[in-house]
Amino acid sequence: MDKETLDRLLADEHVLNRVKMECLLLPYMGLRPVSQITIPAEYPGGLEMGEMIDRALKPRIDRLQAITEPRAKLQAIREARKLMEAQFETEVEGSEPYKAYYGWSDRLGLNSEQAQVRPTVHEIFLYKDRRDGRELKRLLNDRMKIRARVQRRPDPSMQRVRFAYPEEFDVKWITRMGRLLGYPACCVEQYAQDRAKGVNVETRAAQQLLSILQEEKEVDTHAYILGFFYPCKPSCPNAAEKGFRWHDEFSKMDERLGGMYAELLKFNATMVLRQPELINRYLSQFQKPEQGNTGADG
What we know:
Layout: H1 3-11, H2 17-28, E1 34-39, H3 46-66, H4 70-91, H5 96-107, E2 111-118, E3 121-127, H6 130-152, H7 160-164, H8 171-180, H9 185-197, H10 201-214, H11 237-253, H12 255-283
Helix pairs in contact: 3-4, 6-8, 8-9, 10-12, 11-12
């Protein structure tokens, strides 16, 4: 990459620095098969985008909750989902961060795949190798099949988060996806086993790191290679090897990138400590007493 292009990328305020490095540069440099960004959450101003969508949808959702007749409720759900998708298109896909992200992926020669997680939450995957793209498409198709299977035969005793995201508890699926996203095999295996056993991965990873800090031992943050990544242990040699190698490659490309990645490693470790609190706050929405399942979750 020439210096002028890199300067423009680093100066672009519509893309977070973490996203520039983890989602754009790592696959561009051939260091990561596939990257993933969740939108609008990982956009500058993403929280505000989500709040604007929620405000626009609130009157319709309030009316939907009051409908009890089955056919009328089903029709209202369909209309609500269409409105959600329209609001996402207006607020997110029409935004400058959205245009900037796709603009940079095109400039860097990356292929993309966008998938709907919920009507108002999408994922964008970037990759270079079309073979990785084909595997990604198979995984996204398998995710739809897993969700459809669970929805056809809902288990009343199933936690709502497991009903909403059943693929996150499917060992084979998360193993394949984890490796495609560039995570070390040992960390992927630990993550999959934790999910299958009902272990809270975020809490496990936070407690491991906290235990080291409480013993006043030094933490090598090179194992915390990516945001929302949980190494099998803070001293994982495979994760640390990637961290050191990526740090070195960023430094070779530009000294600024080396410094930015060093800070990002520290930030990622800090976020692992905070994740249980953040995740519990998010999951609390699935634990509220239900007033009838609308099926129109945004």
